[in-house]
From TrEMBL:
This is DctP family TRAP transporter solute-binding subunit. NCBIfam families: dctP (TIGR00787), TRAP_S1 (NF037995). GO terms for biological process: C4-dicarboxylate transport; transmembrane transport. Belongs to the bacterial solute-binding protein 7 family. It comes from Ramlibacter agri.
């Protein structure tokens, strides 16, 4: 018995401080509303983590930037102030993994199927692996569908973007493709977008229907184009010291909870966005526009040089090449 206790003590000596207290608290911070694919996914994870660990782990979800805004949440993960995040792939440059931005390339995925195939394949896996040297564990990808774009004037042809100040979330790729259209992209935290649109700090923005609906962007944008020009996806990430230091049984239970929460989130993302778009339409404050095949082709042609520019900007020609080959 003494021997067993000694072995047990040794095994947990390194993490004893972290996990001595029960329940183990896991802070999960994100910037969107609860009523979105990511919001619902994080709440499902909270519920499943409680169930599978028998209450030994308590997940606290902080939605809507209530705890941290975009840039701050990355710092908080690094310092261990939070344990879990789910930032979009547009937000990994500040931690030194700009390769994620390849996923933001315009018109790269052939619909939902093209996206799903890519993320489940070697590109998805290799991107998550790049987080390891940064002290981060990549756990999963969560889907949030395709971007729309909006302003107080209709955006149908590239020329309509001339001189338009557009909010982007951080990706150099979005910066490049909006510049190709003649717009002036500007990075702003997600929590600041509504006010920036309302006060004219920026003229327009891009996002998915679920984010437009829950953040009420349709109140301050007269025209929304359902352009599907780029895809919004999240990498769910954990502080590595925390995750790898968890007792193996708890880590296994949390991994199971994460796998199921991921399947759930990815299964609802499409319909959530269909429903949000229907609500925006029904609300009637903003006019929805859909691109004709000719208009879409004009966007594709205008943005095409971004594929070449991306090779140096995302730090990996290989990823861009692989993506162009596999995403169709
Ligand atoms: C944005 O900043 O526009 C998005 O990344 C927000 C989100 O997490 O969906």
């Amino acid at each position: 018995r003494t021997v067993l206790i000694a072995v047990g003590t040794a095994a947990f000596a390194g993490t004893r401080g972290l996990f001595a207290q029960q329940p183990v608290i896991v802070k999960f911070s994100h910037v969107v509303a609860n009523d979105t694919p990511k919001g619902k996914g994080s709440l499902r994870f909270q519920e499943l983590a409680q169930k599978y660990t028998n209450g030994k782990v308590k997940v606290e979800v902080y939605p809507n930037s209530t705890l941290y805004k975009d840039k701050e949440e990355m710092d908080a993960l690094a310092s261990g102030a939070v344990q879990l995040l789910a930032p979009s792939t547009a937000k990994f440059r500040p931690i030194g993994v700009p390769e994620f931005e390849a996923m933001d390339l315009p018109f790269i995925f052939n619909g939902d199927e093209g996206y799903n195939k890519t993320i489940a394949g070697p590109i998805g896996t290799s991107l998550l692996k790049m987080l390891e040297p940064k002290g981060i564990v990549g756990l999963a990808y969560w889907d949030n569908g395709f971007h729309m774009v909006s302003a107080n004037r209709p955006l149908l042809m590239p020329a309509d973007f001339q001189g338009l100040k557009v909010r982007i979330s951080g990706s150099k790729i979005a910066d490049l493709y909006f510049r190709r259209l003649g717009a002036l992209p500007q990075i702003l935290a997600f929590s600041e977008v509504y006010q920036a649109l309302q006060t004219g700090v920026v003229d327009g923005c891009e996002n998915t229907p679920s984010n437009y609906w829950t953040q009420k962007f349709y109140e301050v944008q007269k025209h929304i184009t359902v352009s599907s020009h780029a895809h919004l996806q999240y990498a769910v990430i954990a502080n590595a010291k925390f995750w790898n230091g968890l007792p193996a049984d708890l880590r296994g239970q949390l991994a199971k909870a994460m796998n199921e929460a991921t399947d759930y989130t990815n299964s609802i993302a499409r319909q959530e966005n269909v429903d949000a778009l229907a609500r925006i339409k029904e609300n009637g404050k903003a006019t929805l526009h859909y691109l004709t095949p000719q208009q879409r082709q004009a966007w594709v042609d205008a943005m095409k040089p971004v594929y070449k520019e991306a090779e140096s900007r995302v730090g990996s020609k290989q990823i861009v090449d692989d993506l162009l080959r596999s995403a169709g």
